[in-house]
Amino acid sequence: MPEVRLIDHEGNQRGVMPTAEALKLAEELGLDLVEVSPTARPPVCRIMDFGKYKYELSKKQKQSRKKQHAFHVKEVKLRPKTEEHDYQFKKRHAEEFLERHHKVKFTVMFRGRELDHRELGQRILDKMMRDLAHVGVVERPPVFEGRLMIMYMAPLPQKLPQKTRSQPDKRDGEEETTHAQAQEQPGGEETVS
User: Fold this and answer.
1) Which end of the chain, C or N, has fewer beta carbons within 10 A?
2) Do the beta carbons of residue 107 and residue 149 sit within 8 Å?
3) Is residue 160 helix, strand or coil?
């Protein structure tokens, strides 16, 4: 490229000039000549400290990655004949995962003749959906893949905290008692302070 449009180290437009002259200017300042827009005619180049530029760029990328929330997928494995106690145990774990903002993959594994009774697996996953509706939503409904029935649930979107009032309501000179003000005394009696 014989000519470039040059922007100096202070951000000022220097206009179109030969590439050799732009390189010479950059060397005199002890900086680098960096091509910013190669598709423009003539290409746009900037005089800058390239190492510092790369460092600033990596800092910006790190900041943007910090703001993103990475979802982790946790798996809960079930069987068509899972007993109630085992079901409750696995449901509690799935609830904890969803509360911690992880996605949950539910897998119902079928063996042998259990494949003839796919409705048992569907029934377990339907029950799981109902029981966890307060903490998650179904991202992918139950699908049969080979000997497995798979369903994905994602956590509910975060709710904004409600504003708290600084003063309690007063009606006719009486203060309204809130749950936080009521304290339980030994012996099961509640007192209001």
Assistant:
1) C
2) yes
3) coil
* Residue 123 vs residues 37, 115, 136: alpha-carbon distances, Å: 59, 14, 18
Query: Domains of the chain, with CATH numbers?
Result: 3-65 (3.10.20.80), 73-155 (3.30.110.10)
Structure confidence by residue, pLDDT tens digits, 14-59: 899 999 999 999 999 999 998 888 898 899 999 999 898 899 889 9
For residues 112 and 93, give the distance between their C-alpha atoms in angstroms, rounded to a whole number. Answer: 28
CA-to-CA dists, residue 52 to 10, 39, 56, 59, 96, angstroms: 14, 24, 6, 11, 44
The pTM is what?
0.49
Which residue is listed with tokens 């494995």? 77
